[in-house]
Design a protein that fits this description.
By secondary structure, this protein is mostly helical. About 75% of the residues lie in helices and about 0% in strands. Helix 2 runs antiparallel to helix 5. The longest helix has 28 residues. The relative contact order is 0.21.
């Protein structure tokens, strides 16, 4: 199995993890029973998968020299920036923290989907 295969196979992990974390956080906004430490651990793990995926992508490019589709890497790096922005607003939006992480998680999911759709020329 090549590093490219790992990158392509792992691509669903950040998308699905951030979708689940985003939906969980949005649900927690209205249902207090969904709130708790597990939500934040899961959200953190989901966001870390974005960094792992981008690092894998950088390693693929360095190793193979493959030419990326236009904007493929852009969406990956924007996802990292989005995670940073979401994290940086947690104090200012404490009163809306579940909405911040809910919509933020879905936004990161969308960036991952977009990057994946652009990668069809890598196959």
């Amino acid at each position: 199995m090549s590093l490219r295969d790992v990158h392509q196979g792992f691509s669903w992990v950040p998308i699905l993890a951030n979708a689940a974390a985003g939906c969980w956080a949005l649900g927690a906004n209205w249902l207090t029973g969904l709130r708790g430490r597990a939500l934040w651990w899961f959200t953190g793990a989901a966001q870390i998968t974005v960094f792992v995926q981008v690092i894998l992508g950088v390693m693929v490019v360095r190793q193979t020299g493959v030419e990326l589709p236009r904007f493929h890497a852009f969406y990956g790096f924007v996802a990292i920036v989005a995670v940073g922005i979401i994290y940086s607003y947690r104090t200012q939006l404490r009163h809306r923290i579940y909405l911040l992480y809910g919509f933020g998680g879905l936004f990161v999911m969308g960036l991952g989907i977009r990057a994946m759709l652009l990668s069809h020329t890598l196959r």
